[in-house]
């Protein structure tokens, strides 16, 4: 891993049903997300908050939860974690997609600026 000044940092945010939160966190941590560079060697770091997700599966959907055409509301976790390096964030997103129960997991990746 490069120095903190030259290695790009990202924030990965994803939303997941509470039943699958731990499996999704484990998947992204396994490929290197959630590690803070520095002398403390912290790993598996994240912030989690609970809320209610809402969606209506459209025609052609194969929903894990709910039914096509029916509005669904479920308890979900919002998980945020630091990811150092573009290669690691790409692997973390792929791991999340494999571990997540939904056809189209909701996630966001933000580039973090260093000052």
Tell me about this structure.
By secondary structure, the chain is α+β, with helices and mostly antiparallel strands. The chain has a domain at 7-46 and 87-115: Alpha-Beta Plaits, CATH 3.30.70.120. Helices cover 21% and strands 33% of the residues. The protein contains two helices and four strands; from the N terminus they run βαββαβ. It has helices at 21-30, 86-99; strands at 9-17, 47-55, 72-84, 106-112. Strands 2-3-1-4 form a four-stranded antiparallel sheet. α1 runs antiparallel to α2 (86-99). The longest helix has 14 residues, at 86-99. It starts with 8 loop residues before the first strand and ends with a strand. The model has no long low-confidence stretch (mean pLDDT 93).
What characteristics describe this protein?
alpha+beta; Alpha-Beta Plaits; 4-stranded antiparallel sheet; 4 strands; about 20% helix; N-reg_PII/ATP_PRibTrfase_C; DUF34/NIF3_sf
């Amino acid at each position: 891993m490069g120095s903190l000044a030259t290695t790009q940092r990202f924030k990965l945010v994803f939303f997941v049903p509470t039943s699958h939160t731990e499996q999704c966190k484990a998947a992204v941590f396994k490929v290197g997300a959630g590690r803070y560079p520095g002398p403390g060697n912290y790993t598996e770091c994240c912030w989690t908050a609970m809320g209610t997700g809402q969606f209506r599966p459209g025609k052609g959907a194969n929903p894990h939860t709910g039914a096509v055409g029916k509005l669904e509301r479920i308890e979900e976790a919002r998980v945020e974690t630091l990811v150092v390096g573009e290669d690691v964030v790409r692997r973390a997103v792929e791991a999340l997609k494999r571990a997540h129960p939904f056809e189209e997991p909701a996630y966001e990746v933000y580039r973090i600026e260093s000052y």
